[in-house]
Amino acid sequence: MTQACDSPIACGVMTRTWILPVLLVLCGSVFAAGRVLSGSPGEAAALLLGFVLLAGVTSPLVFPRSIGALEAQRRSAVDGHPIVYWRPGCTYCLRLRVRLGPSARRLHWVDIWRDPEGAAVVRAANDGNETVPTVVVAGRPHTNPEPGWVREQLRPSA
């Protein structure tokens, strides 16, 4: 059963976040089909697997579940954990997510393509630009910080 989008904007955002991963799978399928037709099924399988893995990495699936900016601000006020404003397909966001490892789940993640308030926070912090990742720690925004620095922000102060 499919679920209808609540608004045209929500449908557009949902579609936009999946364009790159879907295109990668489609391209990989075309290239793999070509390898099968040329008599190299093993090469085709490896090629398709590579494209599927790349699609998975560029999809929203590798990020912790996003919440709205207002909810992230509320939670951050309670637990003191940073808020990460990100968007799917952003290589810098992916770099931050991967380098944080399991500790990324302790952060509050806001997908600016799904949350207009989150996009507004990022624009306010970056002279009108939607530059991500923007990490907010104790109410102060930091644009594209080093993952090690973000990890340090999760440690309790001594």
From TrEMBL:
A UniProt-annotated Pfam family: Glutaredoxin
UniProt keyword Hydrolase present: no
Sequence intervals crossing the membrane: 18-38, 44-63
Entry keywords, A to Z: Membrane, Transmembrane, Transmembrane helix
Ranges of residues in domain Glutaredoxin: 84-140
InterPro entries: Glutaredoxin, Thioredoxin-like_sf
Domain of life from the UniProt record: Bacteria
Protein name: Membrane protein
